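Hi C.,

You asked whether I'd gotten around to modeling the 472-residue construct. I have! Everything is below, sequence then structure, no commentary in between.
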Amino acid sequence: MDDTARSTPAGNATPGTTEAAVILRILRVCLHSGFAVLLLVALVRLLGTGLQGTNWLTLGLALILATVYVLGTVLEKRHSTDPSRFDPRRYSQLWLAAVCLLWLLLIWASADFVWLAFPLFFLQLHVLPLRLAVPANVLSTVLVIVALWFHNAGADGEALQLPMVLGPAFGAAFAVVTGLAYRALYLEAENQRFAAAELRRTRAELARSQHNAGTLAERARLAREIHDTLAQGFSSIVLMGRSAEKSLDDGDTATARDRLRTVQETASANLAEARNFVRGLQPPAFAENQPGNPAGQSVGNPADTSADNPAEDRPENSPRETPEDPLVGSLRRLCEKTETEAAARGARLRCRFDLEGTPVELPNPYRTTLLRAAQASLANVWVHARAGTAVVTLSFLGSEVAMDIYDDGIGFDPSAVTDHTGRPDGSGYGLKSLQERVAALAGSLDIESAPGEGTVVAIRLPLADSPAGNEP
């Protein structure tokens, strides 16, 4: 039999609160109570005959048996409630052997102790393997029969009586059947306990893995946001600062002042990005064009206050102006900003924005991904491509939204760009970041380029059945 089914002297496993566990507890209580009652009855009868001769020795053996039995059950109970305490399971068979030996000495001294065999049958079936428990039950039954005959009939020379055989035999058979049922319940309860423990471990491991996956995903998201917002802005500030320093060295204060103004604007935009980054809101560029935003009502003309009272300032039949789509306005301003920054560095870059199709309201992840893609691509254009023209085209194609960023710069070989781990200085994550953003929305990213032939970055995001398609 498996060790788990005979692991404790008194059979007190801790299977849990299942129905089988409740039955096991009741059986254990009955077992210990039966042993205690039978031993107490035998002691009372022994004391009733008077403590003379060998009765003192019998009393001492009975007290030793009670002590050994209680000691084994108490140690097992303490271990079952606190596994860090002494584990008596390895000594369970020695404990049973001591109990049986003391019982054997007692039935030799008095027939009143033979009935302790019935709780011993259960202990033998529980502690010993089945191949040893059944022979032990048979031997115990024979000893009970012999002890009854010896004490009741054998001393007077009478023959063995049938009741002396049938009583112990039926008791032993009943004990074997009940013991096997107890073993079946015990194994079921143990299996349930192990299954529950395994389930708890699995749930804990799943929770840890989900936490780790969430942590890694959040780190990746933070890395993308920092690279596509703050890092780009700081790079622009560094370049403009160097250009302003050079202009001051050359005595060109007007150009230096213009460069510093660009630095201030970029730093302000970076500060807004950082604050928005902390709040976890949408990019600040979208806030200017959000419906109901006062700033968005006067982007085109700060002096225009007709939006405050359209009935007074707008002719009755004049068409109502439609607010510009947030993404369209953000991309348009990004192109203007890119062209201004390139001019501040002395580069002659013309950056244009084109819109194709009728704009539809996009989920915030779509707007963020497209804006970040345009920011990263245009930053690469005016830093690396040495292009004269860059065009950002946003197309609404019904089932998908597309954005193409074209430049006529020096180009590169896309097949040679295989390492997306970044450079030691923390740069070089733009393409990897863009791929992760697009892949998260089940979109596609294509890069077409060749040395001397410019570059096209094409992004396609599906509008139907997409991860963010139902997000307001």
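If it helps when you're writing up: Confidence is low (pLDDT under 50) at residues 1-17, 290-321, 466-472.

Thanks,
B.
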